[in-house]
Amino acid sequence: MIREQFERPQHILSASQFGRPFLDYMYELINTIRKYDKSKDGLVYLQNLLGHRRAMLYFTQPSTRTFLSFQSACGILGIKAAEIRDPSTSSERKGESVEDSLRTFASYVDLIIMRSPVAGLCDRIARLLDETPRPVPIINAGSGPDEHPTQALLDIYTLQRSFKAADGVEGKTICMVGDLKRGRTVRSLSRLLTNYPGVRLLFASPPEYRIENDLRSFLLDQGVPFEETTNFRDAIAAADAIYMTRVQDEYDVAAESKKVDSSAFKLKFEHLASLKKDCSIMHPLPRRDELDPAIDKDPRANYWRQERNGMWTRVALITILLGVDHNIVLPTL
Fold first, then answer.
1. Which of 101, 111, 16, 13 is nearest to 60 (CA)?
2. Of residues 11, 53, 66, 319, which has the active-site annotation?
């Protein structure tokens, strides 16, 4: 295990809070944790690390992978996890504020994992709890269209595993495709990629789905070369990794997504011949027709590995937040 050279986080709220030392530490930690999965003794050891802790999964936005991977991560570490997936089943139905609800949860648990359609809610709750006698850690598991930091961390891990060279992500061209305006995974991943020298970003989308000005300004300030294009075929041919995303129409106000022609931004089986032989194809899922299922069998398709990596990434994050990552060594396994 490499020695940590970063300030340990109190909460996981934004991709911007992570620097290269943290990312390198996470990569080594996840790889070490995965080795415990190779034996019963290893899994029992992990389960005993946090069997005395409790967590709340507060997911008020639909989720499959993120919810199940966090639930599984808690189980792997022995954490007892409660859940609320519909605020209508809580006292919010009676008019209780979300702030009061979350402060109530903090009275009973040691960790709150939140997914919400409301941008900035996780940050607001973290600040609120920090001012109380019981400031439990908050993990942002998806916050409106603005951030999804744990997805970005598992994406970086997947990219690092995909590139065999010692320099990993450094110097690579990453092409992100789809609804880049409202895609929180794209926003968070783009911010993390600025930690890797020589990375070049290609943003391929319809004009209506271009990245927002805040991300554009951030990349300019960081000196990261990027290009926005509507030429999908040329962009994917130049990429070392392709990050496909779906249209985020859950944020529509008046079905405006139906007015946007995204037909030219779908990765099809026929496109595989034009890709680099070692290109990594990724997708945060769920997918629609922007990613052809016929591609699944291609060795460059990494999105199902990416999906499973989410569980181990979240195990590692929880061990860091709750201070047991230093107990993860492999002396006898």
1. 101
2. 66
